[in-house]
Each structure stands twice: as structure tokens, then as C-alpha cells.
Design goal:
Endonuclease, Chain A; 15-stranded mixed sheet; two-stranded parallel ribbon; 17 strands; 40% helix; 22% strand
Length: 405
């Protein structure tokens, strides 16, 4: 009997090994009810300039509706230009709905205040705060809407890691250039992203959006990229993103490249990283040397140093701040999204990640990763000993706070 069980186990292992990691991932997503859409086109927008130039042009060409969902609109020149364009489209009869997170707004240093909020609504833009913060305030810390989704006429969608702020173009004096990733998407998957927006709009306003006007049929692109949308909803799919990250790592066979800004993974994802390293997978991680949030960089470096000691190649990026949230597996597929590798994104907030089954897009992201290594230094053995006592304590203490960061 033991021999039969051993033979069965070996056969299962051989079948698994015969499958590629992308096919295993696709099958896993389907078991979770996540649909994979064929026939999409994806254009990576690798800078703030690229994103806003591309998106503003589509806004100018809008004929029916423009729907936006962001963590925040920073009250600066780029947001001012966006709202000016949206107001012009509203005058033309285009429906404009814009949703932003109340906590995300109040937590940035140039928030939209109530008077400005009301004046924007006066321009014909349906501007709504998600979960306005009221007494006793603490009730509104979690969950927050951290997604970034724009849908225009049901034909074009934007999603990724960028909010609306000048620093995506100009950077920040304290940390330098601000790097991030966004996407211009066309094809059948646009309706899936739009469904996420519409559900959140209904939750916030009670207005139900449906019909062919908002969800048109799509002709499949010749680009034929397959895309799945993994949506984290705190009540319906609380483990969706951490399951995505962990499964990508657990099924990787050769190589994993990842960039993530607030790198303090929860237990499931951290264990998957360790297991991948122990299997001999080439795990490479790019972390920012600086951060816009105190304590987080030291905690990230503490985790990165431990993974480097285990066998990962961990790099610290000195060319500014990387807010990019991407992972590439085996040169076959990748994910780009809004989710950080921290407890807040993985256990609390509304998040959305795309999974792109495309060697082409994965290769483009891999080239970006390799280019960023030119401005990075690898963490080597003995790195932690070079840190000051204060930095060591911050890293150790920040790691203890992983469930809350």
C-alpha cells in the first residue's frame, strides 16, 4: 500500500511539473470563480507623465461617460487640470462620476476640502467621498478604498498604482523621483473593471448603473492578451490578494521578480517567499532605500535582509521612491495592481490587481526591473551590521508591527 501511495505521489508531482506555472495559476483562479478574459490589449504606462498624457487624451475624446475611482485626488495642479477637463466634458453632456476615499483624502498633505468638493460638484461632476469620516473617527480607519480605476465610455480602462498627484511627474524633494506603474487596457476585461466601480458607486450613493450603454460588447483585440481581475472586497473576497501573491510564489518554477513599496508581507505571503527560495527559485526583490512613510523602509529592509540571508537576491533602489506594485513569474505572466505587500492591503482595504498572462508584457516589466538595478545595490551578507543601532531597532520593531502596518 505504501508503494502504491508513493507511486501515486510521484505521478502527481510529475504531472504538476509538466505544467507551466501560468497554466497552474489560471486553473487556480478559475477554481476561485475568477474569470479570465481573452482578446485584450495592454499598454504599460511607466511614468506619471505617460499616464496623465494618455488618460487626459481619452478624457477629451469621451462621448458618453467617465467614471473614476481613486484613493485620493491630491489638491494640486494635475488634479486641477483633470477636474477642468471633466467639467468641460460635463458641459458637453458626458456623465462624470468620481469617487475618492475620505481617509485617503485627509491623509495626504493637500486634501480636497469641503468647499472645493462642493465647487467641483457645482461644475456638473458627480463627486462622492467613500465612507466620510465622522465621529468617533476610529470606526473609519478600515477598510478603505485603495483601488485606482478609470473607465471611459466602457471602451477604455486604466488601473494600477497611481493616484492623481503632481509628484508622479515632479517627484518629492525628500525622496526624489516617484516611480509607479499604470496601464491603459482595452478589450472585454474593461467591463469587469467597470463592474467593480459600479458596485462601489452603488454602495456609496445607492445609484445602480447597468445596461448596454455602460457595458458594451467588446471586439477582441488582435493583441490577444489574457487578463484576470482579482478584486479584494473585505466581505466577499477578503483573502483574494494574499491568495494571489502566495499562489504565484508557490507555483513559481524558475524565477520571481517583484517590486513593492511597503514590503512587510503577512505570514502566508512571507512563508510562500521562503518556500520559493528553498525550492531553488531565483527570487529577486527590489525595495526602495527611502519611503514616504516613517518606519516602513526600515521594517522592509529588515524583512529583505532576512530573505537575502535565506538566498533571495534583494536590492535597495536609490533612484527615488518606488511605489510600483508588480510581480513577474517564470517570464510567463505577471500582476500589476494597487495592492501593497502589507497587512493593510492584504487584510483590510478594497484593492484590485490585474493578472496578465502574456510573455510580452511580462518581458516589458522584466526589462524595467533590470533597468532599475542600475540604480540599486544588492543586500549582501553583513549588510545589517552596517546599520546604526537606531535603524536596527526600527527594523526589528517595525517587523513586530507587521499585522498593523
Amino acid at each position: 500500500m505504501r508503494k502504491l501511495l508513493l507511486i501515486f505521489a510521484l505521478l502527481c508531482a510529475s504531472v504538476l511539473n509538466a505544467q507551466t506555472s501560468d497554466s497552474i495559476m489560471a486553473a487556480h483562479l478559475r477554481t476561485r470563480g475568477v474569470k479570465i478574459y481573452d482578446g485584450n490589449s495592454v499598454a504599460l504606462l511607466k511614468t506619471g507623465h505617460d499616464k496623465f498624457e494618455d488618460m487626459f487624451e481619452e478624457v477629451r475624446n469621451a462621448k458618453s461617460f467617465i467614471h473614476l475611482e481613486y484613493f485620493n485626488f491630491r489638491n494640486d495642479s494635475i488634479a486641477g487640470l483633470l477636474f477642468h477637463l471633466l467639467a468641460e466634458k460635463a458641459k458637453e453632456g458626458v456623465e462624470v462620476r468620481a469617487l475618492y476615499d475620505a481617509f485617503g483624502n485627509s491623509s495626504n498633505n493637500k486634501p480636497i476640502k469641503q468647499q472645493m468638493h462642493d465647487s467641483i460638484r457645482g461644475l456638473g461632476i458627480q463627486l462622492v467621498k467613500f465612507d466620510p469620516i465622522r465621529f468617533p473617527w476610529v470606526n473609519h480607519i478600515i477598510p478603505r478604498d485603495h483601488r485606482k480605476i478609470v473607465v471611459i465610455d466602457g471602451k477604455v480602462a486604466y488601473t494600477g498604482g497611481m493616484n492623481v498627484a503632481d509628484y508622479y511627474i515632479e517627484g518629492i524633494p525628500e525622496i526624489g523621483d516617484w516611480h509607479d506603474m499604470h496601464m491603459h487596457i482595452e478589450g472585454p476585461v474593461v467591463n469587469e473593471l467597470h463592474s467593480i466601480f459600479c458596485r462601489m458607486w452603488y454602495k456609496s450613493t445607492g445609484e445602480y448603473i447597468s445596461g448596454a450603454k455602460y457595458f458594451p460588447e467588446h471586439i477582441k483585440s488582435n493583441d490577444t492578451q489574457r487578463i484576470a481581475i482579482v478584486d479584494r472586497h473585505p466581505l466577499r473576497s477578503a483573502d483574494a490578494i494574499r491568495d494571489l501573491f502566495a499562489t504565484m510564489l508557490n507555483t513559481a518554477q524558475h524565477k520571481v521578480l517583484l517590486i513593492n513599496p511597503y514590503f512587510v508581507p503577512t505570514h502566508k505571503v512571507r512563508q510562500a517567499l521562503k518556500d520559493a527560495i528553498d525550492r531553488g527559485v531565483d527570487v529577486q526583490i527590489l525595495l526602495s532605500a527611502k519611503s514616504d512613510i516613517p518606519l516602513t523602509p526600515e521594517a522592509s529592509h529588515y524583512v529583505g535582509n532576512n530573505l537575502a540571508k535565506r538566498g533571495a537576491k534583494v536590492y535597495l533602489y536609490y533612484g527615488g521612491f518606488h511605489h510600483t506594485k508588480i510581480m513577474m513569474v517564470d517570464d510567463l505572466y505577471c500582476t500589476v495592481g494597487s495592492s501593497n505587500m502589507d497587512a493593510r492591503s492584504l487584510r483590510c482595504d478594497y484593492e484590485v490587481n490585474t493578472v496578465i498572462f502574456s510573455k510580452k508584457t511580462t518581458a516589458e516589466l522584466t526589462a524595467l526591473f533590470n533597468e532599475q538595478l542600475k540604480s540599486s545595490q544588492q543586500i549582501h551578507k553583513g549588510y545589517w551590521k552596517t546599520r546604526s543601532t537606531g535603524k536596527k531597532f526600527q527594523g526589528w520593531f517595525g517587523n513586530l508591527l507587521t499585522p498593523f502596518l
